[in-house]
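Write out this protein's structure.
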Amino acid sequence: MNTRKLVYLFFSTLLIGSASGALVGVLLDVETYFSGGILNFFFGLLWMLGMSAAISLVAQMGYFAYLTLQRFALGLFKSVKLWNRVQIVLILFVLFDLIYLRYVSFASEEETLLGYTVMPVLLLVYSAVVAYQKQRETNRETFIPAVFFMFVVTTIEWVPALTVDIVNDTKWLWIYVTPLLAANTWQLLILHRLTGVPQNNNS
């Protein structure tokens, strides 16, 4: 992949992550943005765009870190099937941690474990949908790695929001995760187009 394509990947991911995070931030807190006049809306939107841009940069670093990990793991395990099995175990482990550890850390007496299950399960379902699309456009072997990236790597990137008590609020969790999901989805589905990987004729 040449420099022009790398620059396109960087700025397009930055734009998509920033715009998606800002949009969700405004929609989830409409009263705050529209109740203080045009300047309040402008500066609030500017702040949200900046925060979302910073989060999307984290997503870009996470993606290239995962590509490096993927190369290293394939060399270490010498087998795609074995590495995929390891990734499945890690996906289940992270799913358990994402539900149970947050419940133990933040749940009040009135809250149940079920309430802390919704977002992780939705994230896993979304990851599987994106991975299925990746598989359709490339080949079957990409499904598990794509789920792993979308679920495990996104969760790792999401950790700062998940572990800070002041943002343990559904609204802020969505504001933090939206730029990550948008950026990671875009990167995952555009890379094979930029690198010229053949389309899957069997899909």
